[in-house]
Amino acid sequence: MPFPGGLMDNSKIWEGSGILREIRPLLDGVFLLEVEAPEVTSRAHPGEFVLLRVSPSWDPFLFRPLGIAGISGDRMVLLVQVVGRGTALLQTLSSGTAVTLRGPLGRGFSEPKKEKRYLLAAGGLGVVPLLYAYRQWGGAVPMELLLGVPDASWAPLGAYLRQFVPDLRVVSDDGSLGERGNPCICIRGSWDEVWACGPLPMLRGFYECLPGDVPYFPSLEARMGCGYGGCLGCVVPTTEGNLRACVEGPVMDGRKVLWHELCK
Amino acid sequence: MSSANSSLEISLGKTLFSSPLFAASGVWPLEPELWPSQALEGLGGICSKGITLLPREGNPGVRLAETPSGLLNSIGLQNPGMAAFVETSLPRMVREPLPLVVNVAPQSEEDFEGLFEPLRAWESRIAAVELNLSCPNVKAGGMSWGKDPDGVALATRLARSLWKGALWIKLTPQAPDLCAVARGAEYSGADALVVGNTWLGMAMDLQKKRPVFERVVAGLSGPAIFPLALQTVWSVAGTVDIPVIGCGGVQSWEHAAAMILAGARAVQVGSGLLHSLSLPGEIASGLREYMVREKFGSLAEMTGAGRK
Questions:
Q1: Residue A98 needs a FRET pair 20 to 30 A away by CA distance; which of A9, B92, B114, B216 works?
Q2: φ/ψ (deg, to 5) at A233
Q3: Active site includes B135?
Q4: What ipTM was assigned to the predicted interfaces of this complex?
């Protein structure tokens, strides 16, 4: 996979039905989905995402972009936070329901190098694409996964992650779970490269506190329309102009993002 | 024609299209490697994103907001400008088998020469130029070209004098008298009219207590606007003699059939592709079955049949 530069390859895009095989609450306002969709799972790569909508209604009209947290066989795991009408509706579905998927989409993380040390830094559910990356490469490449959360109410997410990341490091704003602090303080260290995903202020904070010579690749979230680079609804301001989160991203070179414009 | 393989071929001017369905301007990437193959089945052609004379970064801030059965967009014509389009995108787009319609968006009278001159060398490989008249004419105080018959007539005359190939005029439903505007385009040399474009709307951010979009207004599209779009197609098709291409909210074969019965020779799908990549294929097969069932021998026979 060429990186940086280059685009995703849309010949991989598939749209069709996936079957919801499991849906269960993880914590207040966050639930876990397992969706069977071999057409997506056979081609997905860490950092890529899917669009998902409840079929066949025209309302809600748009798909929701969801990161992939992991793949086993022909099933993928998605962790979803209820943020609006679409995700609230999704939460009411039951196992066995067909959903409409478009994917895999976007440009994910580049293949890590064994001689480098990687920090994967997440804020809340931003851990989703990083978990997939860790599950794919964590056994072969030096990687640490850091999770920042507000407080101990997020403990079930930590417990879920530890199944895959035994040495998960957790920090919380109020110290009620793991160490007290925020990920911006914790990322200071001797890392060769940092991957991150989470709220924009946190991603901007990483950019500001990381040494300038450490490559920094955040995965950015955006409102999304088509997912294939057509509508330009999801652009991110960068030193190279407005780039599409759906095809030039969602993983972007954090040194090129114009954070002051993005965080306005 | 008696089989479910009824031909969906249509001719518009000198060009024969395999299907009356076009991807509307604004939803289709300029890079062929990004074209979703699933959407290609059923399409007769594609309309490029709107190309302006100079590059445009588009609008800052939020660009999309979902509405009941639709969406608002405020993209702001982000595009690389005509020179870069002709240099980089156009040569690759015309190599694809699907006929290409180039959507151009003039922002002043002075833009026309610079927009059309670079396209002339490609005339034989461009199925049509679609003139976007929803954008503001800076010289006319920023009012959109398409709002009054004089503006539409002026823009059409200028384009006609510079372009010998097929010229489609894309009208805006914001025109107070759409039929007068349509006649203005017809008299000034348009080969076909695209009716229409997004409808102006807005959204309010209740947390921030200000409009969601920086430019306040945004374009509403999706099946929410279909009944409005159908009415405009009906009105314009009853007014002009040149072909009308229906555009607005088409999300099913029934929508496409309704527009054709109302008098549309072709139909564009835009936001529909955001909702479903298989939409063109589904519309094409739905239309074929409908034509067999209702004993229409051709699309030409079906066009306007709802007016009789």
A1: A9
A2: -85, -15
A3: yes
A4: 0.94
